[in-house]
Amino acid sequence: MSSTDEDLNSEGSSRIYSPGAETQYCDTGTSSGGTETPCTLNGSARVRRKQRNALKEVAIMIVPEEKLAQAEQRARMHSANHKEMPAIQELVRCVALTRISFGDFHWRMAHAHINLAKGYLHLKGQALQAKQHCEKGKDIMYANTQLPASEEERGEILRCLITMFLTLGQALMGLGNLKEAEQSLLKSEKVADELRRAEEVTQEEMRQVDTKINLALGRLHVKEGRWGEAVASYQSALQLVQLSKGEKSTECVSIYQDLAAAELARGGHDEHVQYLLQAHSILLTNAPSGEEEGKITLALAEAHTSSGRAEDHDMAEHYYQQSLQCYQAAMGPEHPLSLSVLDSYSRFLILAKNYQAASKLLQESLPAKLSTFGDFSAEVDETYRLLGGIELAQGRQKSAFKKFKKCLEIQTFLYGSQHKKTRATQQTVQLLAKSPELALAEGRSAADHLKQRPLFCAVIPKRSISGGTKGNVYD
Predict the structure, then answer these.
(1) How far from chain centre, in Å, is Cα 69?
(2) Over 70: is that where the pLDDT of 8 sits?
(3) How far apart are CA 14 and CA 39, in angstroms?
(4) 16 three-state secondary structure
(5) Is 0.85 surpassed by the pTM of this model?
(6) String of b and e for 451-462 (b: at least 16 CB within 10 Å)?
(7) Which comes out higher in pLDDT, residue 444 or 147?
(8) What are the pLDDT digits (tens) for 207-217?
(9) Kindly report the CA angle at 223 between 218 and 227, in degrees rounded to 5?
Protein backbone atom coordinates (compact mmCIF):
# COMPACT_ATOMS: atom_id res chain seq x y z
CA MET A 1 0.00 0.00 0.00
CA SER A 2 1.37 3.41 -1.01
CA SER A 3 1.86 6.30 1.45
CA THR A 4 -1.10 8.10 -0.19
CA ASP A 5 -3.39 5.16 0.45
CA GLU A 6 -2.20 4.96 4.05
CA ASP A 7 -2.97 8.63 4.60
CA LEU A 8 -6.43 8.25 3.18
CA ASN A 9 -7.16 5.13 5.16
CA SER A 10 -5.79 6.59 8.41
CA GLU A 11 -8.18 9.53 8.28
CA GLY A 12 -11.17 7.68 6.80
CA SER A 13 -12.14 7.36 3.19
CA SER A 14 -13.50 10.40 1.40
CA ARG A 15 -15.95 8.25 -0.47
CA ILE A 16 -19.53 7.64 0.68
CA TYR A 17 -20.81 4.23 -0.26
CA SER A 18 -24.51 3.43 -0.54
CA PRO A 19 -26.08 0.14 -1.59
CA GLY A 20 -26.71 -0.03 -5.31
CA ALA A 21 -25.27 3.41 -5.97
CA GLU A 22 -22.06 4.67 -7.49
CA THR A 23 -19.40 6.13 -5.26
CA GLN A 24 -20.12 9.77 -4.47
CA TYR A 25 -17.91 12.53 -3.09
CA CYS A 26 -18.98 14.96 -0.42
CA ASP A 27 -18.59 18.62 -1.27
CA THR A 28 -19.44 20.10 2.13
CA GLY A 29 -16.79 21.03 4.62
CA THR A 30 -18.52 19.90 7.84
CA SER A 31 -21.72 18.17 8.79
CA SER A 32 -24.68 19.90 10.43
CA GLY A 33 -23.42 18.85 13.86
CA GLY A 34 -20.10 20.59 13.35
CA THR A 35 -18.12 17.34 13.00
CA GLU A 36 -15.65 16.71 10.22
CA THR A 37 -16.99 14.95 7.14
CA PRO A 38 -14.97 12.55 4.97
CA CYS A 39 -14.19 15.23 2.41
CA THR A 40 -12.66 17.41 5.16
CA LEU A 41 -10.46 14.52 6.24
CA ASN A 42 -9.44 13.97 2.65
CA GLY A 43 -8.47 17.63 2.38
CA SER A 44 -6.30 17.50 5.50
CA ALA A 45 -4.54 14.42 4.15
CA ARG A 46 -3.79 16.25 0.90
CA VAL A 47 -2.39 19.20 2.89
CA ARG A 48 -0.07 16.96 4.86
CA ARG A 49 1.02 15.21 1.68
CA LYS A 50 1.87 18.55 0.10
CA GLN A 51 3.83 19.55 3.19
CA ARG A 52 5.85 16.35 3.09
CA ASN A 53 6.59 16.80 -0.60
CA ALA A 54 7.66 20.38 0.07
CA LEU A 55 10.02 19.19 2.82
CA LYS A 56 11.50 16.60 0.48
CA GLU A 57 12.09 19.27 -2.15
CA VAL A 58 13.78 21.48 0.43
CA ALA A 59 15.98 18.57 1.54
CA ILE A 60 16.97 17.87 -2.04
CA MET A 61 17.97 21.49 -2.56
CA ILE A 62 20.28 21.60 0.51
CA VAL A 63 23.92 21.69 -0.56
CA PRO A 64 26.21 18.81 0.62
CA GLU A 65 28.24 21.14 2.86
CA GLU A 66 25.14 22.07 4.83
CA LYS A 67 24.04 18.45 5.04
CA LEU A 68 27.53 17.61 6.33
CA ALA A 69 27.25 20.21 9.10
CA GLN A 70 23.85 18.82 10.10
CA ALA A 71 25.16 15.23 10.13
CA GLU A 72 28.14 16.25 12.30
CA GLN A 73 25.81 17.97 14.75
CA ARG A 74 23.58 14.88 14.96
CA ALA A 75 26.65 12.65 15.45
CA ARG A 76 27.85 14.80 18.37
CA MET A 77 24.38 14.72 19.93
CA HIS A 78 24.08 10.92 19.67
CA SER A 79 27.63 10.45 20.99
CA ALA A 80 26.88 12.65 24.01
CA ASN A 81 23.79 10.53 24.72
CA HIS A 82 25.79 7.28 24.27
CA LYS A 83 23.58 6.13 21.39
CA GLU A 84 26.02 3.90 19.55
CA MET A 85 24.26 2.91 16.35
CA PRO A 86 22.74 6.32 15.45
CA ALA A 87 26.09 8.01 16.12
CA ILE A 88 28.00 5.55 13.91
CA GLN A 89 25.42 5.91 11.14
CA GLU A 90 25.79 9.69 11.18
CA LEU A 91 29.59 9.43 11.18
CA VAL A 92 29.45 7.13 8.15
CA ARG A 93 27.16 9.64 6.49
CA CYS A 94 29.73 12.35 7.25
CA VAL A 95 32.39 10.36 5.40
CA ALA A 96 30.18 10.14 2.31
CA LEU A 97 29.19 13.82 2.40
CA THR A 98 32.81 14.90 2.93
CA ARG A 99 33.87 12.94 -0.13
CA ILE A 100 31.15 14.67 -2.17
CA SER A 101 32.02 18.11 -0.81
CA PHE A 102 35.84 18.06 -0.77
CA GLY A 103 37.07 15.05 -2.71
CA ASP A 104 39.03 11.93 -1.77
CA PHE A 105 42.35 13.54 -0.80
CA HIS A 106 41.36 16.63 1.13
CA TRP A 107 42.41 16.81 4.77
CA ARG A 108 38.74 17.05 5.76
CA MET A 109 38.29 13.58 4.30
CA ALA A 110 40.98 12.35 6.69
CA HIS A 111 39.19 14.18 9.51
CA ALA A 112 35.94 12.35 8.70
CA HIS A 113 37.70 8.97 8.84
CA ILE A 114 39.34 9.89 12.15
CA ASN A 115 36.00 10.91 13.67
CA LEU A 116 34.56 7.57 12.55
CA ALA A 117 37.55 5.82 14.15
CA LYS A 118 36.86 7.64 17.44
CA GLY A 119 33.25 6.50 17.27
CA TYR A 120 34.22 2.86 16.75
CA LEU A 121 36.78 3.00 19.57
CA HIS A 122 34.97 4.97 22.28
CA LEU A 123 31.34 4.06 21.56
CA LYS A 124 31.63 0.43 20.49
CA GLY A 125 35.09 -0.55 21.74
CA GLN A 126 36.12 -1.87 18.31
CA ALA A 127 39.85 -1.19 18.21
CA LEU A 128 40.51 -2.93 14.90
CA GLN A 129 37.98 -0.85 12.96
CA ALA A 130 39.34 2.28 14.66
CA LYS A 131 42.89 1.39 13.61
CA GLN A 132 41.84 0.83 9.99
CA HIS A 133 40.07 4.18 9.73
CA CYS A 134 42.95 6.00 11.42
CA GLU A 135 45.39 4.50 8.95
CA LYS A 136 43.10 5.52 6.09
CA GLY A 137 43.06 9.05 7.47
CA LYS A 138 46.85 9.00 7.84
CA ASP A 139 47.31 7.93 4.21
CA ILE A 140 45.09 10.81 3.08
CA MET A 141 46.98 13.33 5.23
CA TYR A 142 50.35 12.16 3.92
CA ALA A 143 49.11 12.22 0.31
CA ASN A 144 47.71 15.74 0.63
CA THR A 145 50.24 18.22 -0.77
CA GLN A 146 47.98 21.27 -0.67
CA LEU A 147 49.20 23.97 1.70
CA PRO A 148 46.74 25.43 4.24
CA ALA A 149 44.98 28.51 2.94
CA SER A 150 45.13 30.35 6.27
CA GLU A 151 46.55 30.15 9.77
CA GLU A 152 43.14 29.03 10.97
CA GLU A 153 43.10 26.09 8.55
CA ARG A 154 46.63 25.18 9.64
CA GLY A 155 45.41 24.99 13.22
CA GLU A 156 42.55 22.72 12.14
CA ILE A 157 44.99 20.42 10.36
CA LEU A 158 47.20 20.23 13.47
CA ARG A 159 44.16 19.39 15.63
CA CYS A 160 43.24 16.68 13.15
CA LEU A 161 46.76 15.21 13.36
CA ILE A 162 46.67 15.22 17.18
CA THR A 163 43.33 13.39 17.20
CA MET A 164 44.61 10.95 14.59
CA PHE A 165 47.79 9.97 16.47
CA LEU A 166 45.97 9.88 19.81
CA THR A 167 43.13 7.67 18.53
CA LEU A 168 45.55 5.42 16.65
CA GLY A 169 47.66 5.02 19.78
CA GLN A 170 44.63 4.07 21.86
CA ALA A 171 43.47 1.60 19.20
CA LEU A 172 46.92 -0.03 19.02
CA MET A 173 46.93 -0.20 22.82
CA GLY A 174 43.63 -2.07 22.71
CA LEU A 175 45.10 -4.50 20.16
CA GLY A 176 48.14 -5.14 22.37
CA ASN A 177 50.69 -3.45 20.08
CA LEU A 178 52.22 -1.36 22.86
CA LYS A 179 55.43 -0.34 21.10
CA GLU A 180 53.68 1.25 18.11
CA ALA A 181 51.04 2.69 20.45
CA GLU A 182 53.73 4.56 22.40
CA GLN A 183 55.26 5.90 19.18
CA SER A 184 51.87 7.19 18.05
CA LEU A 185 51.14 8.88 21.39
CA LEU A 186 54.56 10.55 21.43
CA LYS A 187 53.85 11.88 17.91
CA SER A 188 50.61 13.40 19.18
CA GLU A 189 52.67 15.10 21.91
CA LYS A 190 55.02 16.61 19.32
CA VAL A 191 52.15 17.91 17.19
CA ALA A 192 50.58 19.38 20.34
CA ASP A 193 53.79 21.33 20.99
CA GLU A 194 53.55 22.76 17.48
CA LEU A 195 49.89 23.67 17.96
CA ARG A 196 50.80 25.41 21.23
CA ARG A 197 52.80 27.98 19.25
CA ALA A 198 49.83 28.95 17.10
CA GLU A 199 48.36 32.37 17.82
CA GLU A 200 44.65 31.54 17.94
CA VAL A 201 45.02 28.58 20.33
CA THR A 202 43.88 29.25 23.88
CA GLN A 203 45.51 27.96 27.04
CA GLU A 204 42.30 26.17 27.99
CA GLU A 205 42.28 24.19 24.74
CA MET A 206 45.89 23.10 25.21
CA ARG A 207 45.13 21.94 28.74
CA GLN A 208 42.40 19.70 27.39
CA VAL A 209 44.70 18.30 24.70
CA ASP A 210 47.54 17.68 27.17
CA THR A 211 45.11 16.00 29.59
CA LYS A 212 43.98 13.51 26.94
CA ILE A 213 47.56 12.71 25.95
CA ASN A 214 48.73 12.25 29.56
CA LEU A 215 45.80 9.97 30.36
CA ALA A 216 46.53 7.85 27.31
CA LEU A 217 50.22 7.62 28.22
CA GLY A 218 49.32 6.69 31.79
CA ARG A 219 47.12 3.80 30.62
CA LEU A 220 49.88 2.68 28.26
CA HIS A 221 52.45 2.65 31.07
CA VAL A 222 50.04 0.60 33.21
CA LYS A 223 49.82 -2.01 30.47
CA GLU A 224 53.60 -2.02 30.20
CA GLY A 225 54.01 -2.40 33.97
CA ARG A 226 55.86 0.91 34.31
CA TRP A 227 53.98 1.99 37.41
CA GLY A 228 56.13 5.00 38.34
CA GLU A 229 55.74 6.56 34.89
CA ALA A 230 52.01 5.78 34.96
CA VAL A 231 51.61 7.63 38.27
CA ALA A 232 53.56 10.61 36.91
CA SER A 233 51.36 10.80 33.79
CA TYR A 234 48.17 10.57 35.83
CA GLN A 235 49.38 13.25 38.23
CA SER A 236 50.12 15.59 35.31
CA ALA A 237 46.62 14.99 33.94
CA LEU A 238 45.12 15.61 37.38
CA GLN A 239 46.92 18.93 37.77
CA LEU A 240 45.72 20.08 34.35
CA VAL A 241 42.10 19.20 35.15
CA GLN A 242 42.32 20.94 38.52
CA LEU A 243 43.68 24.10 36.87
CA SER A 244 40.98 23.99 34.22
CA LYS A 245 37.88 22.77 36.08
CA GLY A 246 38.74 23.09 39.77
CA GLU A 247 39.82 20.65 42.46
CA LYS A 248 36.24 19.45 43.09
CA SER A 249 35.43 18.72 39.45
CA THR A 250 33.87 15.35 38.75
CA GLU A 251 36.46 14.82 36.00
CA CYS A 252 39.02 14.35 38.77
CA VAL A 253 37.21 11.28 40.08
CA SER A 254 38.21 8.89 37.29
CA ILE A 255 41.81 10.18 37.39
CA TYR A 256 41.99 9.58 41.16
CA GLN A 257 40.74 6.04 40.55
CA ASP A 258 43.41 5.46 37.90
CA LEU A 259 46.04 6.83 40.28
CA ALA A 260 44.80 4.54 43.05
CA ALA A 261 45.06 1.48 40.79
CA ALA A 262 48.59 2.40 39.70
CA GLU A 263 49.72 3.01 43.29
CA LEU A 264 48.28 -0.33 44.41
CA ALA A 265 50.09 -2.11 41.58
CA ARG A 266 53.43 -0.74 42.73
CA GLY A 267 52.74 -1.51 46.38
CA GLY A 268 51.61 1.87 47.69
CA HIS A 269 48.60 0.71 49.68
CA ASP A 270 48.23 3.84 51.80
CA GLU A 271 48.41 6.08 48.71
CA HIS A 272 45.86 3.81 47.05
CA VAL A 273 43.39 4.37 49.88
CA GLN A 274 44.04 8.12 49.99
CA TYR A 275 43.32 8.58 46.29
CA LEU A 276 40.09 6.61 46.62
CA LEU A 277 39.06 8.76 49.59
CA GLN A 278 39.70 11.88 47.51
CA ALA A 279 37.48 10.50 44.72
CA HIS A 280 34.79 9.57 47.24
CA SER A 281 34.87 13.06 48.78
CA ILE A 282 34.47 14.75 45.37
CA LEU A 283 31.56 12.48 44.46
CA LEU A 284 29.70 13.26 47.66
CA THR A 285 29.99 17.01 47.06
CA ASN A 286 28.53 16.69 43.54
CA ALA A 287 25.34 14.71 44.34
CA PRO A 288 26.33 11.43 42.68
CA SER A 289 24.00 8.75 41.45
CA GLY A 290 23.55 5.63 43.55
CA GLU A 291 25.59 3.54 41.14
CA GLU A 292 28.53 5.98 41.16
CA GLU A 293 28.60 6.15 44.95
CA GLY A 294 28.22 2.39 45.23
CA LYS A 295 31.14 1.80 42.87
CA ILE A 296 33.58 4.05 44.73
CA THR A 297 32.55 2.77 48.19
CA LEU A 298 33.00 -0.81 46.97
CA ALA A 299 36.52 0.09 45.86
CA LEU A 300 37.19 1.56 49.31
CA ALA A 301 35.88 -1.60 50.97
CA GLU A 302 38.15 -3.79 48.88
CA ALA A 303 41.09 -1.48 49.56
CA HIS A 304 40.64 -1.73 53.33
CA THR A 305 40.18 -5.50 53.05
CA SER A 306 43.41 -5.96 51.09
CA SER A 307 45.47 -4.17 53.72
CA GLY A 308 45.32 -7.15 56.06
CA ARG A 309 45.40 -4.87 59.09
CA ALA A 310 42.96 -5.55 61.89
CA GLU A 311 42.17 -1.86 62.36
CA ASP A 312 40.88 -1.65 58.76
CA HIS A 313 38.31 -4.41 59.27
CA ASP A 314 35.56 -2.16 60.64
CA MET A 315 36.05 0.41 57.88
CA ALA A 316 35.88 -2.31 55.24
CA GLU A 317 32.61 -3.64 56.65
CA HIS A 318 31.19 -0.10 56.80
CA TYR A 319 31.99 0.55 53.14
CA TYR A 320 30.63 -2.85 52.06
CA GLN A 321 27.33 -2.10 53.77
CA GLN A 322 27.21 1.40 52.30
CA SER A 323 27.96 0.11 48.79
CA LEU A 324 25.29 -2.56 49.04
CA GLN A 325 22.72 -0.01 50.21
CA CYS A 326 23.61 2.35 47.33
CA TYR A 327 23.25 -0.32 44.67
CA GLN A 328 20.03 -1.72 46.09
CA ALA A 329 18.47 1.75 46.40
CA ALA A 330 19.52 2.79 42.89
CA MET A 331 18.98 -0.45 40.97
CA GLY A 332 16.90 -2.73 43.13
CA PRO A 333 17.88 -5.76 45.23
CA GLU A 334 17.49 -8.18 42.30
CA HIS A 335 19.78 -6.31 39.90
CA PRO A 336 22.91 -8.29 38.90
CA LEU A 337 25.24 -5.56 40.22
CA SER A 338 23.46 -5.50 43.59
CA LEU A 339 23.74 -9.28 43.86
CA SER A 340 27.42 -9.16 42.88
CA VAL A 341 28.17 -6.65 45.67
CA LEU A 342 26.25 -8.85 48.09
CA ASP A 343 28.45 -11.81 47.16
CA SER A 344 31.58 -9.71 47.72
CA TYR A 345 30.31 -8.66 51.13
CA SER A 346 29.52 -12.29 51.97
CA ARG A 347 33.07 -13.37 51.08
CA PHE A 348 34.41 -10.65 53.35
CA LEU A 349 32.25 -11.93 56.21
CA ILE A 350 33.43 -15.49 55.59
CA LEU A 351 37.07 -14.38 55.72
CA ALA A 352 36.26 -12.60 58.99
CA LYS A 353 34.68 -15.87 60.24
CA ASN A 354 31.31 -14.20 60.69
CA TYR A 355 29.60 -17.28 59.30
CA GLN A 356 26.14 -16.56 60.65
CA ALA A 357 25.84 -13.15 58.96
CA ALA A 358 27.30 -14.45 55.70
CA SER A 359 24.96 -17.44 55.63
CA LYS A 360 21.95 -15.21 56.28
CA LEU A 361 22.88 -12.87 53.43
CA LEU A 362 23.43 -15.71 50.98
CA GLN A 363 20.22 -17.52 51.94
CA GLU A 364 18.18 -14.33 51.55
CA SER A 365 19.74 -13.62 48.14
CA LEU A 366 19.09 -17.09 46.74
CA PRO A 367 15.45 -16.48 45.59
CA ALA A 368 16.51 -13.27 43.83
CA LYS A 369 19.38 -15.06 42.07
CA LEU A 370 17.10 -17.89 40.99
CA SER A 371 14.64 -15.44 39.44
CA THR A 372 17.34 -13.23 37.88
CA PHE A 373 19.87 -15.76 36.60
CA GLY A 374 17.96 -19.05 36.57
CA ASP A 375 18.24 -22.32 38.48
CA PHE A 376 21.30 -23.52 36.57
CA SER A 377 23.55 -20.47 36.52
CA ALA A 378 27.08 -19.65 37.64
CA GLU A 379 25.76 -17.18 40.22
CA VAL A 380 23.52 -19.76 41.89
CA ASP A 381 26.37 -22.29 41.75
CA GLU A 382 28.68 -19.84 43.54
CA THR A 383 26.04 -19.22 46.22
CA TYR A 384 25.68 -22.93 46.97
CA ARG A 385 29.47 -23.30 47.00
CA LEU A 386 29.84 -20.49 49.56
CA LEU A 387 27.03 -21.91 51.68
CA GLY A 388 28.64 -25.35 51.55
CA GLY A 389 31.96 -23.90 52.67
CA ILE A 390 30.27 -22.15 55.60
CA GLU A 391 28.57 -25.36 56.73
CA LEU A 392 31.83 -27.28 56.40
CA ALA A 393 33.75 -24.66 58.40
CA GLN A 394 31.20 -25.03 61.20
CA GLY A 395 31.48 -28.84 61.18
CA ARG A 396 28.00 -29.51 59.79
CA GLN A 397 28.99 -32.13 57.25
CA LYS A 398 25.46 -33.27 56.42
CA SER A 399 24.33 -29.75 55.44
CA ALA A 400 27.59 -29.18 53.58
CA PHE A 401 27.04 -32.41 51.64
CA LYS A 402 23.62 -31.22 50.45
CA LYS A 403 24.96 -27.84 49.35
CA PHE A 404 27.93 -29.27 47.48
CA LYS A 405 25.75 -31.92 45.86
CA LYS A 406 23.47 -29.18 44.53
CA CYS A 407 26.55 -27.30 43.40
CA LEU A 408 27.75 -30.44 41.58
CA GLU A 409 24.46 -30.75 39.69
CA ILE A 410 24.70 -27.16 38.45
CA GLN A 411 28.36 -27.46 37.46
CA THR A 412 27.73 -30.70 35.57
CA PHE A 413 24.97 -28.93 33.62
CA LEU A 414 27.07 -25.81 32.96
CA TYR A 415 30.57 -27.18 32.34
CA GLY A 416 30.25 -30.95 31.92
CA SER A 417 31.49 -33.78 34.11
CA GLN A 418 35.15 -33.46 33.07
CA HIS A 419 35.63 -29.76 33.81
CA LYS A 420 38.14 -28.99 36.56
CA LYS A 421 35.51 -27.22 38.66
CA THR A 422 33.14 -30.16 38.40
CA ARG A 423 35.84 -32.71 39.22
CA ALA A 424 36.99 -30.73 42.28
CA THR A 425 33.42 -30.54 43.58
CA GLN A 426 32.94 -34.25 42.85
CA GLN A 427 35.95 -35.08 45.04
CA THR A 428 34.53 -32.93 47.85
CA VAL A 429 31.16 -34.70 47.62
CA GLN A 430 32.82 -38.12 47.67
CA LEU A 431 34.87 -37.25 50.73
CA LEU A 432 31.83 -35.93 52.58
CA ALA A 433 29.85 -39.03 51.66
CA LYS A 434 32.36 -41.14 53.60
CA SER A 435 32.09 -39.06 56.77
CA PRO A 436 30.75 -40.76 59.95
CA GLU A 437 28.03 -38.09 60.34
CA LEU A 438 26.46 -39.03 57.02
CA ALA A 439 26.80 -42.71 57.83
CA LEU A 440 24.87 -42.24 61.10
CA ALA A 441 22.30 -40.08 59.31
CA GLU A 442 21.66 -42.94 56.91
CA GLY A 443 21.03 -45.33 59.81
CA ARG A 444 24.35 -47.19 59.71
CA SER A 445 26.15 -47.94 62.95
CA ALA A 446 29.87 -47.87 63.37
CA ALA A 447 29.87 -51.67 63.27
CA ASP A 448 28.00 -51.64 59.96
CA HIS A 449 30.51 -49.18 58.65
CA LEU A 450 33.33 -51.54 59.61
CA LYS A 451 31.58 -54.47 57.97
CA GLN A 452 31.54 -52.65 54.66
CA ARG A 453 35.29 -52.23 54.72
CA PRO A 454 37.22 -54.71 52.50
CA LEU A 455 38.80 -57.79 54.05
CA PHE A 456 42.37 -57.60 55.28
CA CYS A 457 43.48 -60.28 52.84
CA ALA A 458 41.92 -58.31 50.00
CA VAL A 459 43.94 -55.24 50.93
CA ILE A 460 47.33 -56.92 51.63
CA PRO A 461 48.55 -58.87 48.56
CA LYS A 462 50.14 -62.29 48.90
CA ARG A 463 53.91 -62.18 48.74
CA SER A 464 56.75 -64.69 48.90
CA ILE A 465 58.87 -65.23 51.99
CA SER A 466 60.99 -62.25 52.76
CA GLY A 467 64.64 -62.60 51.70
CA GLY A 468 64.29 -64.97 48.77
CA THR A 469 62.41 -65.91 45.68
CA LYS A 470 61.83 -69.59 46.42
CA GLY A 471 59.11 -71.16 48.49
CA ASN A 472 61.62 -73.27 50.51
CA VAL A 473 64.93 -71.82 51.59
CA TYR A 474 66.57 -75.25 51.63
CA ASP A 475 65.77 -76.04 48.01
Answers:
(1) 31
(2) no
(3) 5
(4) strand
(5) no
(6) eeeeeeeeeeee
(7) 147
(8) 999 999 999 99
(9) 60
